[in-house]
Amino acid sequence: MTERKVRVRFAPSPTGPMHVGGVRTALYNYLFAKKHGGDFILRVEDTDRERFVPGAEEYIIESLKWCGIVPNEGVGFGNGEYAPYRQSERKSMYRKYAEQLVESGHAYYAFDTTEELEEMRNKMQAAGVSSPQYNSITRQNMKNSLMLPADEAKKRLEAGEQYVIRIKMPRNEEVRVKDLIRGLVVVHTAQLDDKVLFKSDGMPTYHLANVVDDYLMKISHVIRGEEWLPSAPLHVLLYKYLGWEDVMPEFAHLPLLLKPDGNGKLSKRDGDRLGFPVFPLQWTDPKTKEVSSGYREKGYFPEAVVNMLALLGWHPSTNQEIFSLTELIEQFSLERVSKSGAKFDPEKAKWFNQHYLRTRTDKELAEIFMEELKQKLVPINIGSDLQLARVQGICRLLKEKANFTNEFWKLGSYFFIAPEKYDEEVVRKKWNEKSSEFFNKVKEKYFALEKCSHDEAEKVFKQTAEESGIKPGDVMQLFRVIITGGVGGPALFEVVALLGKEEVAKRIEAAVKKFGN
RNA sequence: GGCGCGUUCGUCUAGGGGUUAGGACAUCUCCCUUUCACGGAGGAAACACGGGUUCGAUUCCCGUACGCGCUACCA
After folding, report:
1. Dihedral sign, CA of A376, A378, A384, A385?
2. Cys-Cys crosslink for A446: which of A150, A393, A436, A501, Cβ 3.0 to 4.6 Å?
């Protein structure tokens, strides 16, 4: 069994946008597969038609692509040898396995209607049973092929009566599930119920479909969320009853992603409430038109999201925090996945993004920023190389100040538009009777310069100050306010150089006009 | 309620029978700096509780508490 080729799958249900917890599950599957030279498969588990949401499948595919978690085979990724990968398209394959289980005595037909099931539950609750189950005891009072006379069950089947197939859970056995993260988990079948395997609409439930597909697709490791741990014994039993025990995959149940404040599973609402995305991509609900924000649209880099998610529940033996996807593949192991749930931390997510922002070249950032500038209708000549070079220069300064590229405009709009408002406090404190004369002198000297580089600009400024008997430090802040309107920002003479002497002159004139006398 | 899983700084975590319990984010102080940020230095900050086992337990065992998950013809 250890000789088997590693094949893992990510098997989401298209019931809505996949959130970051799903992305992390996909990521761990991907890392594990790549680490062992195996395959990563995307299988869409759409056995529940009621909950199907249009666009959800496309959303999942696009999200994986954006994150760089690319499956070897599966829906949207060039179907492979085991196609189809959408369970709705595999519908015809499941019935025979369900029937095989009936024949071998491990499952049975049940004809109970929804009303009858409800009645049974109500009765039992009235009798003090808090969560009634359809199990080895209660099944004796229900309408199923185990209790009905043999010919009646057959008759009902032939008459086309609606039925489901349920597993015949043994009365008192121990089921042992070996989990790569949690160790051995032992459950008694007395606690388990006769789960429906095959629904009356001809579709399998998750439990059957999952086991059958994993078997057929030669899946070697099932890596999924912790919410599946309670049903893992059922799956183990299914492998046994189907005669597939020797090729049963290994299980690894991942800890859950928790909400940043308080406790509980991270949910869609948390993002809205706390103001950070829980989805990789922006999503518009097709019915309500409600929009949920996404990491991509919020300005996160996929590397940052992947890096952050990788460390939420997994840790290498070193203190390394920054990982490329390649490094993650090299170092990943299921043994180092933690057992407890991880609270999601938006602040750390921001820190990761800041890191990756600084690793981007000025040119890459300029390309991103240009897109935004176009939309802002900034009067710059987008097509020209000269302007690209200028925006690159701006990005070089701005990337040291920002966490996200979408903060560039807020941080650096003064590169494109002269300030309209000036920091009042600085003006009030620093502007005096000598200011107009001093800045006019600076302006003239800049004009005399052939090229107003940042070195030259600084030298000239300081010289002028000295000549006027002013300490440079006393006018620096004022100069910044005249140029940018505000008090913070990149090295001032870098800004001056990028703006050019004509623009600087204009801004000095505007300020002198406004505050002079 | 039942069953299962979990519990180290505020958060993510390392560690593991004898440690000054380590790192990162956040926070605070200082340095750098014309500003903001970056960067650097430092500070504050944790083994849920109770019993065992042991010379010694945060680490192993058992309970308790708390949290989470599951308990559908949903996945």
Report:
1. negative
2. A501
The 10s digit of each residue's pLDDT in A195-208 is 999 999 999 999 99
Residue A320 beta carbon within 7 A of nucleic strand B: no
Strand B proximal to A259 Cβ, under 7 A = no
CA-to-C1' distance for A227 and B13, Å?
Answer: 23
A401 Cβ within 7 A of any nucleic strand B atom: yes
A312 touches strand B (CB under 7 A): yes
> Residue A183 CB closer than 7 angstroms to strand B?
yes
Summary mean pLDDT of chain A: 92
- Summarised one tens digit per residue, pLDDT across range A7-18 is 999 999 999 999
* Residue A434 structure tokens: 């000598």
Mean pLDDT of A258-281: 82
**Secondary structure (DSSP) of A150-177:** HHHHHHHHHTT---EEEE---SS-EEEE
Cα-Cα-Cα-Cα dihedral sign, residues A159, A164, A165, A168: negative
**Distance of alpha carbon A435 from alpha carbon A468, whole angstroms:** 10
Tell me the residue ranges of DSSP E strands in A54-182: 73-74, 107-110, 164-167, 174-179
Residue A9 near residue A29, CB atoms below 8 Å: yes
Secondary structure (3-state) at A46? coil
CA A232 – CA A235 distance, rounded (Å): 5
Is A268 labeled as catalytic in the residue annotation? Answer: yes
Q: Is residue A272 exposed (0-12), middle (13-18) or buried (19+ Cβ within 10 Å)?
A: middle
Q: What is the pLDDT of residue A268?
A: 79
pLDDT at A1: 47
Lookup: nucleotide whose C1' is closest to A132 CA: B71
Among A470, A257, A252, CA closest to A345:
A257
pLDDT tens per residue across span A216-255: 999 999 999 999 999 999 999 999 999 999 999 999 999 9
Q: DSSP H helical segments within A283-384, as ranges? A: 302-310, 325-331, 346-359, 362-375
Contact A437, A484 (CB under 8 A): no
Outline where A14-79 has alpha helix (H).
Answer: 20-35, 56-67
Q: Which nucleotide is nearest to A186 (CA to C1')?
A: B4
Distance CA A499, CA A508 (A): 12
> How many angstroms separate the CA atoms of A427 and A429, rounded?
6
SS3 A471: coil
CB-based burial label for A160 (10 Å; 0-12, 13-18, 19+): exposed
Q: How far apart are CA A284 and CA A510, in angstroms?
A: 46
Q: Which of residues 13-52 of A touch strand B (CB under 7 A)?
A: 13, 15, 45, 47-48, 50-51
Residue A249, pLDDT score: 98
Round and report the angstrom distance from CA (A264) to C1' (B62).
28
The pLDDT-based confidence of A378 (bands split at 50, 70, 90) is low
Distance, Å, A335 CA → B56 C1'? 30
